[in-house]
Amino acid sequence: MVHAAGVNRDGLVTTMTEDQLDEVFAAKAHGALHLHELTLDHRPAAFVLFSSASGILGGPGQANYAAANGFLDALAVHRRSLGLPATSLAWGLWAEETGMGGRLSAADLRRMARNGMGALSGTEALGLLDRALATDRPLLVPARLELEALRAAAASRPVPHLLRGLVRPALRRAATGPVQEDGLVRRLSGLADGDRRAALLDLVRARLADILGHDGPAAIDPDRGLGEQGLDSLTGVELRNRLSAATGLALPATLVFDHPSPAAIAAHLDGSLFTAGAGLLAELDTLSAGSLDEEALAELTGRLEAALHRLRRTTEADFDLDGASVTELMEYIDSDLGL
């Protein structure tokens, strides 16, 4: 007996509707539960549940789908505890143009590959099915992992915890405050206003092109609406996350709705990064150039030193020990001591 039903109703968890949950759970969880109850007395030779790797690794916009597949995995373990046959297969992507995978575009497939999930051919998948049924394990994850892509991505974003035995996470400090790309703001602050805005627009277009699977930023129209260029709510959140990581700004989840074109987002980044900062620097210049009496100078010095201490505590965060080797730990200590 093979339970292979499934429905996709993707969406952000904060906007997930009851209908989206019901449709996915009806096909996955409720159907599997009915089959379980019907086979309590009559035992089939095999009870196979087609689950998904999204229940193990997660997937953007697939909270409902991941939860439903997690139910299948738990059901298989439960059946085994009752002495009943059960195997849940948390499949990765199949390279089939029909079925649930057929809804994915070429850009979707490239994006999944960059995130470490390749596609299994039908022959490979059926071979893994045969091998899985020859084991006594209730849960297996037959999937093609693109480890080289994960290693390449590890320099800019965290490696999922479940994959850290396969891909070493990049050595990094666990920041408690926002941290921008190395030297980005410093490089931009040395540019004229027009050049700075152009550089920020290039940044937005490059990130957007990568998310949408284009060959380069030239494919992105600066003034055309983001939705017209293929961005949806899920990829909009990914764009927000990437720009937050690049600039160190705490950008809102509504970024792509409040600023619905690449040029509008670039202008927002420019204002957020430099308008307030420029005003603060001007105030400091005025204070340093002016004449202050000893009492006022002592008060100003004390406040600036306290602010500097808070800033250092924010940006000089503790080392993330998770997954670090002894060599990496010693390198961190040397670096922190300036050796």
TrEMBL record:
<keyword id="KW-0597">Phosphoprotein</keyword>
<dbReference type="InterPro" id="IPR013968">
    <property type="entry name" value="PKS_KR"/>
</dbReference>
<keyword id="KW-0596">Phosphopantetheine</keyword>
<dbReference type="InterPro" id="IPR009081">
    <property type="entry name" value="PP-bd_ACP"/>
</dbReference>
<dbReference type="InterPro" id="IPR036736">
    <property type="entry name" value="ACP-like_sf"/>
</dbReference>
<dbReference type="InterPro" id="IPR050091">
    <property type="entry name" value="PKS_NRPS_Biosynth_Enz"/>
</dbReference>
<feature type="domain" description="Carrier">
    <location>
        <begin position="198"/>
        <end position="273"/>
    </location>
</feature>
<dbReference type="InterPro" id="IPR036291">
    <property type="entry name" value="NAD(P)-bd_dom_sf"/>
</dbReference>
<dbReference type="InterPro" id="IPR020806">
    <property type="entry name" value="PKS_PP-bd"/>
</dbReference>
<protein>
    <recommendedName>
        <fullName>Carrier domain-containing protein</fullName>
    </recommendedName>
</protein>
<dbReference type="Pfam" id="PF00550">
    <property type="entry name" value="PP-binding"/>
</dbReference>
<keyword id="KW-0808">Transferase</keyword>
<dbReference type="Pfam" id="PF08659">
    <property type="entry name" value="KR"/>
</dbReference>
<dbReference type="InterPro" id="IPR057326">
    <property type="entry name" value="KR_dom"/>
</dbReference>
